[in-house]
Write a structure and sequence with these properties.
heterodimer, A: mainly alpha, Helix Hairpins, 70% helix, 0% strand, elongated, B: mainly alpha, 12 helices, 72% helix
Chain lengths: 118, 328
């Protein structure tokens, strides 16, 4: 049980690093962006995990849960807005990738660098 | 039982993430990332974050998959060369992961009610929501009123990203935006497939209705402008995919979308300024009505509407910017 309490954090670390691996090891720019959104999703998971209270419930008052324990609403607010901002910035990244494809004819990082060197 | 389910979902999450990075075919990666988002949304739900789960399901599994597919059409559908520095990258990544895991042994256990994160402002928000704002959903209260400044900032980030995509991709789209009669001989979208079209048409009004429900019920249950904006945008994108972008642009022309992007942000800002002119602080809704609690309700309703309008406008504009690029 003691170790199970840390499992969420380990999944966070694993997801963060899987996303980071895609960013540094993959040459395809779209793959890098997908990796970046995995990295981002890992951070979301960490925040929401920290907000959870054992035996708590979602922070919405109803007529019969006034004496219940509630999970922390603050990380939820931060992540709620961050998800929408995340998709907007990812789209901006995709827009840049599309322009790169139009100018260079490729979205592989090594080929772009080769064209730049000429 | 919930714990076992949570562990199961988390393990699936890691497996999906590895598969996303491993797949050489980008189409497979994108589809898997849709599944990843859905699993993540289920996890959020188990962690008591209903609002976040709704957002992740609408944005991650819906909109972002469509946008990534749109980008794939314009670029490439598979990776070419395998990277040369994979071993170095793997060593860096595994080392960092071990350091992170080592660091977690110092962290408070999962669900610990005495963790530092629960000791600071969170109890204050939970206490004050009922007397100061009097709406059941604390997440909406914090988002709309207590931390209204932060949300205004987020809306402007979404606004800026939307404008950025339009600048990058909209430059040459003017000559293609002609509004001539729709040529039925060249059907766009899935117009000639009967079953998706019929099913899609049946679903669309309900998706829109659900979007508006999420928008206006956000004070009482999970929901709000961010989620509703994404759901409404998803409904219109579904229409565009089924009937062709030209018909979708007839329903919501580009000018209207640009208006929505700016209009939503302006509504939010105007509510803030109205607070100043009525003798309060910026984004202080209590002065909007003679009864402070009623003022809070009105303010939250207006700014949530602003958020929803901007998010819808931005997501649809991005979709159309990608779709119009296809015609070059």
């Amino acid at each position: 049980m003691e170790l199970l309490g840390l499992y969420y954090y380990w999944v966070f670390a694993a997801l963060l690093m899987i996303g980071f691996y895609a960013v540094i090891a993959k040459l395809n720019l779209i793959k890098k962006l997908i990796g970046l959104s995995l990295f981002q999703a890992a951070v979301f998971l960490l925040y929401i995990t920290m907000g959870k209270v054992e035996g708590g419930t979602a922070p919405i008052f109803t007529s019969d849960n006034a004496d219940r324990l509630f999970s922390n609403p603050l990380p939820q607010v931060l992540i709620l807005t961050a998800i929408v901002v995340g998709i907007s910035t990812t789209s901006l990244g995709l827009g840049i990738v599309i322009r790169i494809k139009e100018e260079y004819g490729t979205i592989e990082e090594n080929e772009i660098q080769e064209i730049d060197r000429q | 039982m919930t714990v076992i389910f949570g562990v199961f979902l988390l393990t699936l999450l890691v497996i999906t993430a590895i598969a996303i990075v491993q797949a050489r075919n980008l189409f497979v990666s994108v589809m898997l990332s849709g599944i990843f988002s859905l699993l993540l949304a289920a996890n959020f739900f188990l962690l008591d974050a209903a609002d976040v789960a709704l957002t992740e399901a609408a944005i991650g599994a819906g909109i972002s998959t469509v946008l990534l597919l749109g980008a794939l059409v314009l670029t490439a559908d598979s990776e070419r060369a395998p990277s040369t520095n994979r071993l170095v990258a793997l060593i860096v990544v595994v080392t960092t992961m071990l350091v992170l895991i080592y660091a977690t042994f110092e962290k408070p256990r999962f669900g610990d009610p005495f963790a530092p994160v629960h000791q600071h402002v969170a109890p204050w928000y939970l206490d004050k929501t009922r007397e100061a704002i009097d709406i059941p959903n604390v997440v909406t209260a914090v988002l709309g009123s207590f931390r209204g400044y932060d949300t205004l900032g987020e809306v402007f980030v979404v606004f800026t990203a939307g404008i950025g995509v339009l600048f990058l991709l909209g430059a040459r789209s003017g000559e293609y935006a002609q509004q001539g009669p729709i040529d039925s001989a060249q059907p766009g979208g899935l117009r000639h497939y009967l079953i998706p079209r019929v099913v899609g048409r049946l679903l669309m009004p309900f998706i829109l209705l659900f979007g508006f429900y999420v928008q206006f019920h956000g004070d009482y249950g999970p929901g709000g402008g961010f989620q509703a904006g994404a759901i409404v945008a998803a409904a219109v994108i579904l229409y565009a995919l089924l009937e062709g972008e030209d018909r979708a642009l007839r329903v919501m022309p580009r000018g209207l979308l640009t208006g929505l992007i700016a209009g939503g942000a302006l509504i939010y800002g105007a509510v803030g300024l109205a607070g100043i002119f009525l003798g309060g602080n910026f984004l202080d809704y209590s002065v909007l009505s003679s009864d402070p609690v009623k003022g809070q309700h009105l303010g939250i309703l207006l700014i949530e509407a602003g958020v929803g309008i901007t998010v819808t406008g931005v997501l649809l504009s991005i979709f159309h910017a990608f779709a119009a690029r296809d015609k070059f």
